[in-house]
Fold:
Amino acid sequence: MTRTLPKKQINPKSCATRVSESPLDSLEAIISDYLANYSDNADRELRFYQRQRTLEDALENAALARLPSGKRAHHQRRLSSSTLNAAWDALQQCDFKACRNFHDLFCLIDQTVRPIDGIGELYVYDTAHRIGAYLRLVPDRVYVHAGVRVGAKALGFKKCDYILCSDLPGEFSALQPDQIEDCLCIYKHELEMLFGT
Structure:
């Protein structure tokens, strides 16, 4: 049984909404909509971090949640400048050369900044993803946090920190792990409607 979803405001930069106004009645439709409306913007953001001249530049922009436009990333809009600066200061002490893969990087950033008041799991993932782009370390699994947790729960994944791509429905094989993370967040309500949680 398919369900028609109410129309939403269009805002391609927010993971709380989606661009398409047509009903999405399957995982294939959700993934097609993501590829058509969101993946290019996400790739553009990652290229910004990949192209930084130095690790210090990449670290500053990632820690302060700066987008190519110079504005603060949507996910970190509510964090104070002092919180972001405290995270940046802490991250400058890290030995990123010791990170062999994205998970090492994620854990290092988590241990470094989570004790800072106001820093949560979404900041940790986003910052690791941005720094990872510069270091050429990409996720090999889907990290679960914030809105992603809602989408993951709709698919039957409860109380987990990450999901292996091989455990997801086959339709997700068209996406990379970071794209799946993005998709689960953006389409969390559509997934809830489709899978009836």
